[in-house]
Amino acid sequence: MGASSWSTILLTALTVVNAQSAYSSAYGVYGNSSTSGHITASPTAATATVSQYFHGDAEGYVLTSCSFSQINGTATTYSVQFTVPASADVGPNVLPNIQDPHAKQAQTLCPGYTASDVTRTENGLTATLNLAGSACNVYGTDIETLALEVDVQSAHRLRISIQPAYLDSSNISQYILPDDLVHLPEQGVVQSDTQDVDLQFTWSNEPSFSFTVLRKSTGDVLFDTRGSVLVYENQFIEFVSQLPQDYNLYG
Ligand SMILES: *[C@@H]1O[C@H](CO)[C@@H](O)[C@H](O)[C@H]1NC(C)=O
Ligand SMILES: *[C@@H]1O[C@H](CO)[C@@H](O)[C@H](O)[C@H]1NC(C)=O
Ligand SMILES: *[C@@H]1O[C@H](CO)[C@@H](O)[C@H](O)[C@H]1NC(C)=O
């Protein structure tokens, strides 16, 4: 099942020849779901409603009704009952790229980001991430500039946010879920320079922006993006972290 959409185009003052050919092509394509009847009158003007149908890559037109004003003033209306074609149930062939040996590999094609303007804040840091090379645009369009924000929210909670630096009301909902859907944990009171903070954030620009998060009390590395590039596009985000064997990641 795929998303389908309809738009209706009202064609006025078609010649009967056009209307008849639209009718026959509709009849031909969806012959089994159309109705009976042939257009035999010789009117001077005709009005036809043609619905345009989109399904995946497929697109078609179906005549849904037409009427003719005849020379002697009578009007004849034909209605063509439309039934969604069986092909509407067949979605486009989508092979997940992890199973497609020919899929473009974002990790080898994309440049990653470089952090700059790193600024300490009360509870962490902010930085700007800029594309570290030419855009790869593998599965969408690379976002040039990202904003990184790291906040130590409590002794055991670190918040890392990476989002497009420039967002406004026209596109923010594409990237940021509203607070009533996903409520973000709030900033707790932390003295970030005390020894109590258990999570340590370390970042590097070599060879491109990466970071690690270490839980100091156990020595566990919770996130480690070294050896990978961050890919941030309008339709695709790839963030790679090393995981130990048999590790569970929630969220
Ligand atoms: C119309 O019906 C015939 C016979 O039942 C069938 O072979 C044909 O595929 C059908 N055409 C469409 C467009 O559904
Ligand atoms: C109008 O013309 C059509 C076709 O020429 C004819 O069938 C119909 O009876 C006519 N109607 C009137 C009211 O004369
Ligand atoms: C969001 O829209 C603004 C203004 O239309 C534009 O400047 C900005 O680049 C857009 N951001 C993204 C990530 O597309």
Q: In short, what is this structure?
A:
This protein has about 250 residues and is mainly beta. It is about 10% helix and about 35% strand.
SSE map:
Elements: E1 4-14, H1 16-29, E2 45-55, E3 58-69, E4 75-79, H2 106-109, E5 113-120, E6 124-131, E7 145-154, E8 157-164, H3 172-175, E9 199-204, E10 210-215, E11 220-224, E12 231-232, E13 237-238
Antiparallel strand pairs: 1-2, 2-3, 3-4, 5-6, 6-7, 7-8, 9-10, 10-11, 12-13
This protein binds 2-acetamido-2-deoxy-beta-D-glucopyranose (3 copies).
GO molecular function, one term: hydrolase activity, hydrolyzing O-glycosyl compounds
Signal peptide: 1-19
Keywords: Signal
Q: Helix proportion of residues, in percent? A: under 10%
How many whole angstroms does the radius of gyration measure?
29 Å
Q: Mean pLDDT across all residues, rounded?
A: 77
Continuous helix count: 3
GO molecular function, one term: carbohydrate binding
Keywords: Signal
InterPro entries: Gal_mutarotase_sf_dom (IPR011013)
List keywords for this structure.
251 residues, mainly beta, Immunoglobulin-like, 2 domains, four-stranded antiparallel sheet, 3 helices, 13 strands, binds 2-acetamido-2-deoxy-beta-D-glucopyranose
Question: Could you explain the architecture of this structure?
Answer:
This protein is mostly beta strands. The protein has two domains: 3-89, no CATH class; 105-238, glycosyl hydrolase (family 31) (Immunoglobulin-like, Sandwich), CATH 2.60.40. It has three helices and 13 strands. The protein has helices spanning 16-29, 106-109, 172-175, and strands at residues 4-14, 45-55, 58-69, 75-79, 113-120, 124-131, 145-154, 157-164, 199-204, 210-215, 220-224, 231-232, 237-238. Strands 1-2-3-4 form a four-stranded antiparallel sheet, covered by helices on one side. The longest helix is centred in the first third of the chain and has 14 residues, at 16-29. The chain is elongated and about 90 Å long. The protein starts with a strand and ends in a 13-residue tail after the last strand. It binds 2-acetamido-2-deoxy-beta-D-glucopyranose (NAG) (3 copies). GO terms for molecular function: carbohydrate binding; hydrolase activity, hydrolyzing O-glycosyl compounds.
